[in-house]
Amino acid sequence: MTTTVYNTVIFEYLDSQGNPTSSVYAATLAADNTITPISGYLPNGQFRIRVHSNTYGYAVVSPSTFTKAWPSTPTATSVTSSFVGGQTLTISGAGFITSHPENNEVSVCGIRAAVRSATNSQLVLTVPPLVTTQTQQLYNLAKSSIIKGSVISDTPANALFVVDGVTKTVYSSANPTCYVGLNFGSNVFADISSIKYMPNPAWATASKYLSGAVFEGSNDSTTWTNIFSIDTSQVHSGWNYWMPSSAIQYQFVRFSHTSVSGCQLSDFVF
Asked: Can you give the C-alpha Rg of the chain in angstroms?
């Protein structure tokens, strides 16, 4: 009988989009296949289970994710804030992320707040500026700068291929629906003045795979707005370009499609 030795067993904390974060919890795998965190503590939220052998690679785990539910609804202190924000807000509860506190996702009036510190039972955060069209026009709360963003996708393992500048590497997904894009950061809204993208260079006829594919934008990662649909009469191998009639602003921008294309893009630039 051959016994497989698994060298690494971890729980990866997933963000609200299902992408792995920097909060990782080491675990042990017992003889009865029970997986237990070594520290004995896991925060509330969704996790992906990763079991790896140096000899055989990653094991297939089913189900591969699980959710630890909130035992009770957190409560927050009451503060008075101007549109500029900056006040300290304290949230009390149980099961917060203490490893990399920034992975606690907290929104104030729909805008992501910066978490300054975290314990198992308390978060301390800074109230963000209330940036709306009206407040921006009146007070210029959001400043312009060059931003790069972090990659979001339904298949994180090869997501960086779309921003590595190497046309021979291609992002791909095996899921029925797929997406890959950028998150420009909490309270950051990118001016999208153009979108440049390259389909899989191995496709002789890109239009064959991209019917129904779209680029979308969102400011909360939940509600997505169609920026533009791929025009199969125009799309081609190599770089393709799209420009709006006027700049549009989003925190999240992504390419979205189905298993027909597997979202196979070599690179994109927003």
From this structure: 21
